[in-house]
Design a protein that fits this description.
Elements (H helix, E strand, L loop, with lengths): L11 E8 L7 H15 L6 E4 L3 E4 L2 H12 L5 E5 L10 H4 L4 E7 L10 E8 L6 H18 L4 E7 L5
Antiparallel strand pairs: 1-6, 1-7, 2-3, 2-4, 4-5, 5-6
Length: about 160
């Protein structure tokens, strides 16, 4: 809430990449992509990766190694990194982090429809206006770099909460 009593706008920047369906088979590339997404979202309170298996992989070395094995075995249809809403003790993480949130997802084509695009998305919502430029740069650089690496059919970056760009 703004000091004048008006609700504040949630600033966010989102990047999206539409990659070829066969990306799932390029396990080294997928692991590199996941590693970079982890580094981008880690400052937003993320300490685990969730998958469609369903399973949760911690970001410690053992959890990351298990995730790499799941990627190599092509067991994942979806990979999700998201700021949790609560700690195990029930504390609100967004409140603890001043309102900043992040989410990154990789959605591979489901086996029943193997020809649709692999989807890669990352959204960063900084705690306040001062973090917006950095978040926009991180997401834009990520999309530029990975759209080329993945031979993307489409990619974009969008913003919410600002109209002065």
């Amino acid at each position: 809430m703004h000091p004048n009593g008006q609700p504040t706008r949630q600033l966010s920047v989102t990047g999206w990449i539409g990659a070829p369906p066969e990306l799932r088979a390029a396990t080294d590339v997928v692991n590199s992509l996941v590693d970079e997404l982890i580094e981008i979202v880690r400052p937003f309170g993320i300490d685990a990766v969730h998958s469609s298996e369903p399973r949760t992989y911690r970001l410690a070395p053992k959890g990351r190694a298990n995730l790499a094995r799941a990627i190599a075995a092509r067991r994942l249809d979806t990979v999700i990194l998201s700021t949790p809403l609560r700690t195990e003790a029930g504390l609100s993480i967004p409140e603890m982090m001043g309102g900043k949130r992040a989410e990154a997802t990789i959605g591979f084509p489901i086996r029943q429809v193997p020809f649709i695009a692999t989807r890669v998305a990352v959204q960063l919502s900084p705690a306040d206006e001062s973090g917006w430029a950095g978040a926009a740069t991180v997401v834009t650089d990520f999309v530029r770099r990975w759209a080329e690496e993945l031979r993307a059919a489409a990619a974009f970056v969008s913003v919410a909460g600002r109209n002065d760009l």
